[in-house]
Design a protein that fits this description.
The chain is an alpha+beta fold. It has helices at residues 4-16, 22-33, 38-44, 51-86, 107-121, 135-138, 177-186; strands at 125-126, 132-134, 158-160, 170-172, 191-200, 212-221. Helices cover 42% and strands 13% of the residues. The longest helix is centred in the first third of the chain and has 36 residues, at 51-86.
Length: 230
């Protein structure tokens, strides 16, 4: 049964309770504010008190509960403020997160880079050219005769096909050899370069073939050179 002396004792305990750690704050909550805590037990005992004392006991217990809740809230706020004060510049929550590695380099890209690095070490440069080519660079300059099968639409992707003047044709390049033609037109020997890149063929797409693939060609033009120089 609740009485004033019990309430005063609990009040003194609440006021003097050390709440300097998170564990102590949680223990305080369980002891005084939980459903099975001391204050709940005291409130349940009001019904056993004398009728004339119940109003006073209820008022005292409500004040006791408010005191416990105030101490609990203040302790939590103080601990939270202490944590915030301990945050250093490197832990600034407003800074962007560190980079998170996602994915990896595609096998094709890895292979191309390895090939490039090998030829770099041999003294070659990397040459590049357009994937949309004209008839001259893709066929004529490479000695493809007019009746060559590669000039047929079933073998090549034609972007523009002129029935009267083939020099006006535009195609998706069928090899990287046009880059060799452009390089030799722009640069005098010696020339030492490789031409990696995508090329296109008008082929059926199956599990073993595709209309796009990668090719690497090499061009070495100089006096008295042979494969032995590689």
């Amino acid at each position: 049964m609740a009485n004033i002396s019990d309430i005063e004792k609990v009040k003194n305990d609440i006021s003097s309770y050390n709440l300097d750690t998170e564990e102590a704050v949680e223990a305080f909550r369980l002891t005084y504010l939980s459903r099975k805590g001391i204050i709940t037990e005291l409130l349940a005992g009001i019904g056993k008190a004398e009728p004339q004392d119940r109003a006073r006991l209820g008022k005292e217990l409500n004040a006791l509960k408010q005191l416990a809740k105030t101490r609990f809230d203040e302790a939590k706020a103080a601990l939270s403020a202490g944590k915030t004060a301990d945050i250093t510049a490197t832990d600034d929550p407003t800074l962007p997160p560190p980079p998170f590695p996602a994915g990896s380099t595609h096998p094709l890209s890895q292979t191309l880079e390895e090939i490039k690095n090998i030829f770099y070490r041999l003294g070659f440069t990397i040459a590049d050219g357009p994937e949309l080519e004209d008839d001259f660079h893709n066929f004529t300059a490479l000695n493809f005769p007019p009746e060559h099968p590669a000039r047929d639409m079933q073998d090549t992707f034609f972007i523009r096909k002129d029935q009267e003047d083939s020099s006006r044709d535009l195609v998706l390049r069928t090899h990287t050899s046009p880059v060799q033609i452009r390089l030799m037109k722009e640069q005098k020997p010696p020339v030492r370069a490789i031409m990696p890149g995508r090329v296109y063929r008008n082929e059926s797409i199956t599990a073993k073939s595709y209309c796009l693939f990668h090719q690497v060609e090499g061009l070495y033009v100089d006096r008295n050179v042979s494969l032995a120089d590689l």
